[in-house]
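Reopening: structure tokens for the iron/sulfur cluster complex, inputs below.
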Amino acid sequence: MIIRHVSVKNILTKSKIPGFDFVINPYIGCPHNCIYCYAEYMRKFTGHNEPWGTFLDVKIAQTPIKPAVLFHADVLLCSATDPYNPYEEKYQRTRQILQHLIYAQAKVSILTKSALVTRDLDLLKQLYQCEVGFSFSSVDEDVRQMVEPGTSTITTRLEALATIHQAGLSTAVMAAPLLPGISDWKAIIEATSPYTSTYRFDSLNLRPGFQKKFISLIALRYPQLLPLYSEIYLKGNNSYLKTLKREIQAYALAQNLQVEIFF
Ligand code: SF4
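Re-run output (same inputs, fresh job):
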């Protein structure tokens, strides 16, 4: 892993994501190295030629966070990295940022694939408002190893979700990206429903930059799914996703779950 400390003007970014005023990405790059990672586009904007998942810039902000700016503001940690990548254990940038967010009384949403978030329970409990969301594209450990090799195992991620829930904090599950023919979304709900009732779903968005990489993986591991991927991602046929959405909505209604579906 190539690690650098980089100076940035401001750690805060005004958010274009609905529901959030600001986004904070304490790092550039992500050692979790998910094969479908949409944040890989960051390489282009940050002068990185190295493959995604092989570098990590630890951001050092020139301007301190101004508490008044963040007072009761909705802040997302993170949109283009994981706040609890394994190097957070050493560099503690997310932990330092949380201390500022407590002081500012910000409303914080965390999105992670890492059990390391439980290290910061002491701080999370002090936030004015906090939701800890865990992402799962699958709860099958073989799938995780294939598509999210650097993340916490499914077992430890589920244990972390349980720990956060048992500590009395709000939790959510981001079932995303749903990999057509691979992700078992009902299994994700069944494994996590004791610890949350808030679910968000998103589909796999195969941007041209990594379409080839992902389709090669499908050809190798799931050749029987190639026609389905071709229909969805090459021909733009969205009937599979429409059906999937209807199934999730019907299930959520029957199970009395709060769901948001972003596709
Ligand atoms: S955890 Fe998120 S940011 Fe990190 S590689 Fe995976 S999808 Fe990308």
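The radius of gyration is 18 Å. Residues 2-209+257-261 form a domain with the TIM Barrel fold (CATH 3.20.20.70). Marking as resolved unless the reporter disagrees.
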